[in-house]
Amino acid sequence: MEEIIRTPDPVLVGAVEALLGSEGIDVLVADRHISAIEARIVAFPLRVLVPADQADRARRLIREAGWGDELRPAP
After folding, report:
1. Which of 5, 19, 64, 70 is the most buried (most CB within 10 A)?
2. For the CA atoms of 30, 33, 38, 41, what is the dihedral angle to 10 degrees?
3. DSSP string across 2-56
4. Mean pLDDT of 19-23
5. Dmax over Cα atoms in the chain, in whole Å?
6. By the 8 A CB rule, do 65 and 35 touch?
7. Burial (0-12, 13-18, 19+ Cβ within 10 Å), 12
8. What Å distances lie between residue 27 and 31, 35, 41, 53, 73, CA to CA?
9. What is the CA angle 72-13-22, rounded to 5?
10. What is the mean pLDDT of residues 36-52?
C-alpha cells in the first residue's frame, strides 16, 4: 500500500474515497478511528492508502479532480 494523501479533513477523504472507489481503485483510510477519538487534531491526520500498483492512476485522478495539492510526494 502507498500513502497518497495525509490530511485532517474528513470531507476531502470522503470525496477521494468516492472518486477512487468509483474508478475501481481500492482505498484504505488509516487512522480514521484515532482521528475521530482525538477530535481531528492535526497530530492524528487521516491517511489515504492505495495499492502500489494503482497509485499512479489514483494520483492522476486526484489531480484531474483538482486536489493535486493534497498529494503526498511519490516514493
Report:
1. 5
2. 30
3. EEEEEES-HHHHHHHHHHHHHTT---EEETHHHHHHTTT-TTS-EEEEE-GGGHH
4. 97
5. 33
6. no
7. middle
8. 13, 17, 22, 12, 18
9. 100
10. 75
